[in-house]
Amino acid sequence: MEIKPLPWLKQSLAVWRKDLRIEFRTRYAYSALIMFAITTLVTVSFSVGGFALDADISAALLWIILFFSAMAGLARTFVHEEEAGTVTALKMAAQPEPVLIGKYLFNVTLLSSLTVLVVPLFLVLLNQKVLLPGVLVAVLLLGCLGLAGASTILAAIVAKAGAKSSLMTVLAFPVLLPLLFAAISATRMAFAGGLPRAITTDLLMLFFYDGTAVVASLLLFEYVWNE
Amino acid sequence: MLGPLILGVWMTGVIIASFLYMPATQGLGEMGRIIVYHVPAAWIAVLAYLMAMVNSLGYLRRGQLHLDRQAQVNAELGTVFCLLATVTGAIWSRGAWGQYWNWDPRQTSIAVLLMIYAAYFVLRSAIDDPDRKARLSAVYAVLAFFTVPFLVFIVPRIYFSLHPDLINLSDRSFNMDSRMLKVFLASLAGFTGLYAWLYKIQIRLENLLYRLEMKRSE
Predict the structure, then answer these.
(1) Measured between alpha carbons, how far is B86 from B84 in angstroms, rounded to an integer?
(2) In A54, A66, A108, A114, which residue has its Cα 20 to 30 A from A146's Cα atom?
(3) Per-domain residue ranges for chain A?
(4) Minimal C-alpha gap between B41 and chain A (Å)
């Protein structure tokens, strides 16, 4: 693998733009994500009723909602290529790594637009106070980067495995657990306050997880993509 | 035939010694004897998973199907020993902490390790084509292995764990009685031999099954 930053960047951005345009035409992945998130959110809010939840529980609930919505929508990018039969064209047009980076950027875009919509709704519906908004924003950003980072290559694997439903969740859950641990722990502190040192530890762990996920995906993607 | 015989005698010796020769541990009492089985099982699980990962990497580099079979056998053996470590750990936890399962960081990480390889086997069963199965599962195994350090080493260090550490990191000493250490090391060697023997049998079986498959499809 030879690293060529500039052509890679151009190609990745082209892949990213292409995916955004296709998504804008059908809005399938985005509506699946949003509807899934809203449905779970409403179910949670409805079953909780008027009770005020502990920060522990609402932090866990928030990440459960985000995780399962991500699983519902993020596999779409690669599955769509397989279904539409455009894989070969994409293979000819771009190197494997830019394809991965482009898809990764697309998934980050999808997830962050979901988060921007769902998290405020969550806070309103569950009546959750946020003591440290800056920490919450940082956790959500790092969390989205990590969720997308590990899911993108898994989506490629799932697409090659015949897009069996539920395979995505099964594969992603153990890989994403370290991220979820750290994210839930940091979100709890963002809701209820916590020691600066503990918060930094969690954020650092998220940061390193994100880096590891992206680097590992870049190294391995070639084997999934080329047959 | 001599190898398995020696192994059988050796392991029997270890089992007897763990109850008769080895003293009860300080603090943990009779429960401490489980260390002779729990730690070697965990060690073999890590070793087998490591070998599975090495085989997977080898498959990705060279694309030879026998490496994929080795990875599969190692993952299977790793899972068996990981289950043993989990169960013995839970029994010990019941005696020492009063509960079989309480999501101590160590228990969490071993549960996740089991889940990773459960997912690995699900992925393998979802794909029919042998080459594609080998490649995708190898990628998943390597990818999952990148996240394992977060669980096994970082999480128990950052978050408070009640799990005892064998090696005291502060003064680099071994917290063990000398007789106990002897039995423990003997058990470690026995478990490693057991793993090597099981691996040999399993890989022979898988190779034969593969050749049978080839014969049938001719």
Answers:
(1) 5
(2) A54
(3) 5-225
(4) 22
B24 lies within 8 A of chain A by CB: no
pLDDT digits (tens, 9 = 90+) for B71-118: 999 999 999 999 999 999 898 888 888 888 887 878 888 888 899 999
Q: How far is A47 from chain B (nearest CA, A)?
A: 26
Contacts 24+ apart (CB under 8 A), B152-157: B152/B46, B152/B109, B152/B113, B154/A178, B154/A205, B155/A178, B155/A181, B155/B105, B155/B108, B155/B109, B156/B105, B156/B106, B156/B109
Strand partners, B167: B174
**Is B152 near chain A, with CB under 8 Å?**
no
**How far is it, in rounded angstroms, from Cα A159 to Cα A153?**
10
B147 in reach of chain A (CB within 8 A): yes
Which chain B residues are closer than 8 Å to A175 by Cβ?
116, 143-144, 147
Count how many pairs of residues, chain A against chain B, have C-beta atoms within 8 Å.
83
Whole-complex ipTM: 0.85
Q: Supply the DSSP string of A114-135, one letter for each residue.
A: HHHHHHHHHHHHTT---S-HHH
The dihedral built from the CA positions of residue A201, A203, A209 and A214, taken in this order, carries a sign that is: negative
Question: What pLDDT, in 10s, does the model give residues A21-78?
Answer: 988 888 877 888 888 889 989 988 888 877 777 888 889 999 999 998 888 888 888 8
